[in-house]
Amino acid sequence: MANWTESELERLAAAEELEIAPRNDDGSLRAATTIWVVRVGGDLYVRSWRGEAGSWFRAARRTREGHVSADGVEKDVRLLDAGDEVGAAVDDAYRSKYQRYAGSYLEPMLEPRARSATLRLVPDETGTAPRA
Q1: How far is CA 76 from CA 7, 13, 31, in A?
Q2: Which residues contact 4 (CB under 8 A, 6 or more apart)?
Q3: Which of 19, 22, 31, 109 has the highest CB neighbour count under 10 A?
């Protein structure tokens, strides 16, 4: 699997929000959803605040492919389940980056429902993802 460049990591991690468009079964992209993104080490993570009930999340889990964009970065990605071992670090990254939303939007992102719907974004440079 490909790695993010440092520039991509910095720009995506610094973005307030990320647009994510999971691929449909036919290879086309779903309409993009605006979500939060955090960085832990050399990896980027996203969560569904609705947990596994989020429609974009269900599509992402089904095809494991999508497209993200933020701050001028456009990238096809693989959408992988984040392991439990990174859950606390991802929680900390959300707390640090989005602390100004404490008392409202942040707390649901730290609850078990959202935590169970955490995905790691991995650049897809293989060229195997279908293009719409």
Answers
A1: 16, 16, 14
A2: 12, 42, 44, 123
A3: 22
The answer to the question of residue 129 being in a domain is no
Say if residues 43 and 118 touch (Cβ distance below 8 Å).
no
Is the pTM value of this prediction over 0.90? yes
Residue type, 39: R
Distance of CA 36 to the CA centre of its chain: 7
d(CA 79, CA 62): 10
β-bridge partners, 126: none
Full domain range(s) for residue 112: 6-123
> Cα 128 to chain center, whole Å?
20
Q: Give the CATH number, domain containing residue 13.
A: 2.30.110.10
- Which pLDDT tens digit goes with each residue over 35-80? 999 999 999 999 999 999 999 999 999 999 999 999 999 999 999 9
